[in-house]
Amino acid sequence: MHHNTACSTLYKKTYINPCMDNAQLITDVKELLGNAETEKALNRLAEFLGSDPKYKQLNRLVLQARAQFQKAQRDELQGLVSGEQSKLNYNQVTRQALQIVEWLEEGNLRPETSFPPPPPRRWPMALGAVILLMVLAGGGYWWFQRQEPDLETTQTADCPIDEAFPESSEFNILLRPFQTVAGEEQKPHLIIAKKLDDFIKGLKIDCDFGTLTDVDPDSFFTDADADTAAIRCGANLIIWGTVEKPAPSDSSTIQMNYKFVSQDSFVKLSKLELTGGSELVKVNTLSNIPTGTTLTQSIFESIKLLFGLIAHETGDRSTAIEMLEGYEPAPEDTTAHLLKGMVLAEDYMANNQDEKAWESYNQLLEVHPEYPLARNNRGILNYQKGNYEDAAEDFSVFLKKDSTNAEVLEIRGSAYLKADQLKKARLDLQKVKELRVPDRELNRKIEEVDKKIEEEEKTKASAEAEIRANPNNLAAWNQKAISSQKLGDYKEAARASEVILRQDPDNVNAYLQIIKAYRSAGDTIQAEKAIQRAEAAGISRSRLNQMAPLDITLSPRRTNTIIPLKKN
What we know:
Blueprint: H1 22-34, H2 38-49, H3 56-77, H4 83-106, H5 125-137, H6 141-147, E1 171-175, E2 179-182, H7 188-200, E3 207-211, H8 223-233, E4 237-244, E5 253-260, E6 266-274, E7 280-290, E8 292-295, H9 299-313, H10 317-325, H11 334-350, H12 354-367, H13 372-385, H14 388-401, H15 406-418, H16 422-435, H17 440-469, H18 474-486, H19 490-503, H20 508-521, H21 524-536, H22 541-547, H23 556-561
Parallel strand pairs: 1-3, 1-4, 2-4
Antiparallel strand pairs: 4-5, 5-8, 6-7
Helix pairs in contact: 1-2, 1-4, 2-3, 3-4, 7-9, 9-10, 10-11, 11-12, 12-13, 13-14, 14-15, 15-16, 16-17, 17-18, 18-19, 18-20, 19-20, 20-21
């Protein structure tokens, strides 16, 4: 698992209110870290933790991590470290920040640890070149190569493991015996080992696992310790945890931690895009989902997620789907929700099951309605399905985080154009033209939308002339409502349809135009009231759905994901 893709900055936020709750802070900081905004994440943590003396210990660690980050910046700017070493320094600080967030999430406000200093910097480039020449001249090239950090997972001689990983193993899993924090000693890691043994036999690659033997039962095992142990043993994944059973009659409380070991701290997923020919392509990107987390469910339920992720990482998509489909995250395991939804959708698409991927994004967005990568990917799938209104809404949520993303603006503009929301399409496409050099296809779309706007304005003017001649001409009022909707004047579209309903209270098209107008304006409350009025008039939601090319009935899922849009 070596991820080399740089993380894109999806959004920027101002500093938090010190009074904000822990959950919101944790969410914001994880998102910032996922978007490579490490300094801003550390500043937010320092501002929050410094506001209350009870966070003194955690705040000290934050300040320490921030000092290391600033030193890494100075070393990079002065050319004192190589690009590779600079990346390692930044990744170390990111891991420290994630560990602090984890402690805060667990309520562990006084962890008995301090972060190690950054690794010694390498020699400046010019001096390093001289040393390299000297070493080569002296026949010491092999020795010099051994001094370079090995970026692959390689087991060292000081790995305290019960049985060394065989060289043929392509994926190594390291188990640490679970730590008993209360009650009699228990060994849930043995259950995991047995399940791992059964599971590995079904994998299509060479995979192995081993157990650490030098475990101090009284030592708190941190995320940084997990990194060290895994790297020392050449493991791709490490599993550890705690178990608590204060009294014989009590049930055991188990927390299982896992971490995939890589150069990056976040899961690599695919961002869906469309080519000029509307072909779907996948671009690798780093998410803001950490490569490890704590699970609070039963050991058997947690194993489903863990094994699903192992199968995903080893390329066994079908097994990953089978395991993840059977896994239901606990409500408090928010990272697990994201992992299941995003990885399952990715594996569905790898198996050409785009419809199931779309549904996986639907379920994920019920829990995390603002998650930008899922919004982008579902938007692409909605666009391909012809759900242009839904696609535009998904892209709008993504663009709240990255408002100058020309690629997403262009496809949202295309979705608006296909949905006959002409003014919105024009605004998006014109903004794309300002952000990048326009190509022939973009210019063609702008010309097309301009022509349609001109035609619609003439159609609306004609309808208004007929209304002046005959105010009871319901066909003219209906045309005015349709044209106003396309031109972005949603209030006028709703008013025109209300005129029709005053004369024809059962007019289905009038209700439909009112609902669409409110939805397009982002007013889901009024849209729902209009649906209820239609039902009271004897027009069912299913009938409205049959008439409209979008989920006009605002099911609970859609109500949660509607985006407030400015009225034009």
